[in-house]
Amino acid sequence: MTDKQMPTGSSCRVVCDERDIGNLPIMPRQKRTPTYCLSEAVDSCFKHYYDSLKGMSPAPNLYSLVLEEFERPLLERTLKFVGGNQLRAAEILGLNRNTLRKKIKQLEIDVNAFTNKD
């Protein structure tokens, strides 16, 4: 993938196998405007979550739980995308480099696992 940013705001659809909600393939609706609608993927996850409750109450402190569950894969996927380069990951995420390093330490993420080794 190049350093060009994907455009946002165009409509897209999420193709989701409900059995594997953690690995949502996200497909562009229009070929001329490739876009990845994160909000639709997240909405699909929440639909699946609430549907699976079958009348039971949601987990307490759901907001905090979602943030915790979301942060690790976001950081890990971004680090994988940039080959472990923390400066590039921080730029993509819109975080200060030191903030990213603090989060990596807090979440005990092994950055070496994402470093490109030739």
What do these coordinates show?
This protein has helices at residues 38-53, 62-81, 86-93, 97-106; strands at residues 12-14, 26-28. It has 118 residues and is mainly α. It has two domains: 11-57, no CATH class; 59-118, Orthogonal Bundle (Arc Repressor Mutant, subunit A). The protein has a two-stranded antiparallel sheet with strand order 1-2. α2 (62-81) crosses α3 (86-93) and α3 packs across α4 (97-106). It is elongated, with a radius of gyration of 16 Å. The two termini are 19 Å apart.
Shape: elongated
| Gross CATH architecture of the largest domain | Orthogonal Bundle
Number of domains: 2
Number of helices: 4
Binned strand content:
5-15%
What is the assembly state of the chains in this entry? single chain
**Which structural class do the helices and strands define?**
mainly alpha
Largest sheet: 2 strands, antiparallel
Arithmetic mean of pLDDT: 77
Which H/E pattern describes the elements?
Answer: EEHHHH
Straight-line distance between termini: 19 Å
Q: What's the number of extended β-strand segments?
A: 2
Write down the Rg: 16 Å
State the helicity in percent bands.
Answer: 40-55%
| Unreliable sequence segments | 1-34
Write down the CATH class of the largest domain.
Answer: Mainly Alpha
CATH fold field value of the largest domain: Arc Repressor Mutant, subunit A
